[in-house]
Amino acid sequence: MGPKVKFTREQIIDTAFEIAQTEGIDSITMRKIAEKMGSSVAPIYVNFKNVDELNEALIERIISISQQLLKEENTGNPFRDIGNASLRFAIEYSVIFKDLVIKSGRYMQGYDEKMMPALIEEMQKDPELNGFTVEELKTILLKMRIFQLGLSMMAANGLLPKEYNKQDMMDILSSTADDVIMSAKLRRGLR
Amino acid sequence: MGPKVKFTREQIIDTAFEIAQTEGIDSITMRKIAEKMGSSVAPIYVNFKNVDELNEALIERIISISQQLLKEENTGNPFRDIGNASLRFAIEYSVIFKDLVIKSGRYMQGYDEKMMPALIEEMQKDPELNGFTVEELKTILLKMRIFQLGLSMMAANGLLPKEYNKQDMMDILSSTADDVIMSAKLRRGLR
DNA sequence: TATATTATATAACATATGTTATTCTAAAAT
DNA sequence: ATTTTAGAATAACATATGTTATATAATATA
Q1: Least confident segment among A184-188, B16-20, B52-56, B168-172
Q2: Is B164 left (phi over 0), alpha (psi -120 to 50) or beta?
Q3: Residues B87-130: pLDDT tens digits?
Q4: Which of B101, B154, B182 is closest, CB to CB, to A183?
Q5: A65 and A81 part of one domain
Q6: CA B157 to chain centre
Q7: Are B48 and B4 found together in one domain?
Q8: Same domain, B57 and B95
Q9: What is the pLDDT of residues A36-49, one digit of tens each?
Q10: Number of folded domains in chain B?
Q11: What share of chain A is helix, strand, coil (3-state, %, to 5)?
Q12: Among B72, B87, B122, which residue terminates a domain?
């Protein structure tokens, strides 16, 4: 063995995460991480083959944090839970959230299509959504995912009215869910 | 006078715009623009003091294009017009749209608060929106702006269902507007 | 035609960044 | 106690990029 480890892999990822959140993912550089840790770049290259490997680890970290946020939401209503978790991520890690959405193409594309069936299944258990066809449920879900992305994006960009707090955001999300569902019911009544 | 001008200011901005649309705004470099034009960097520095000035000119160009798109929409319904123009921009210039939204903080923040009153005024002329208070109109408008941003963002990221075309997007935008307005009417009836 | 002007090309300089080779040193193994 | 090992610091190399100084050449004007 050699001398004691002073800079761990975890610490390096943490530091990269901090830079990502304050300056954006693309602003991460090896030297910046090193300076923030009070080290040289050597420990980074001991722990990561190159900058790409470090970025991968950072993405994993980000995903794990977002999953943690989702676990912490537990109303049982999947709409509310996913919406609120996304909202929290957008508010608490706004810079990273924006970067992620932009670079999401590959991550989220497959992700959504995998989540879809599970969510539809959840919706079918909800008594309030009783009697809708799968097509109708899909439309409701899509509308809500669109709204939720828009809301998170606005929150992350500080584009909502000044006085809006997290509760207001959750309320408008929930209110719009009601709008969409109620209107779907009315349309159903017209069949 | 000197020799004929071979590379104009406009041509430089055009080239920067092309790079922005294919690789992202941050991928623009002086040398890349020059190479794409078949010149050296000299003509760029004759027309622009530095890279910041070029970026300003590029932003102006982008804003002017988006305003052009808005002018081309003319249903008279401001919801539809703004929504469709935003959607077209997001689809036709997706990379730039994403960059803009992310870096929008400063541009859009004031912009929205200036647009708000004019839009509310427009809404008050709409017979379908008759009888709502200003507060109710504001909520409807906010919901629609949120949905429209989410939809544009999804379109720009290719996150919508594969078979979705522009008409489908315009339809779901319009359908959600109906949902929000219809539900507001129902709530109004309950007062 | 000769000169002045100026658009353009070229090359250099300064800085930022990823990466690597070398050196140093502290801890473990012998 | 000596040797080996491996983490860390340092400096160098390669490349990318903004910027500028200088050289070249085309065109208007005298």
Answers
A1: A184-188
A2: beta
A3: 999 999 999 999 999 887 655 656 677 778 888 998 998 898 98
A4: B182
A5: no
A6: 15
A7: yes
A8: no
A9: 999 999 999 999 99
A10: 2
A11: 80, 0, 20
A12: B72
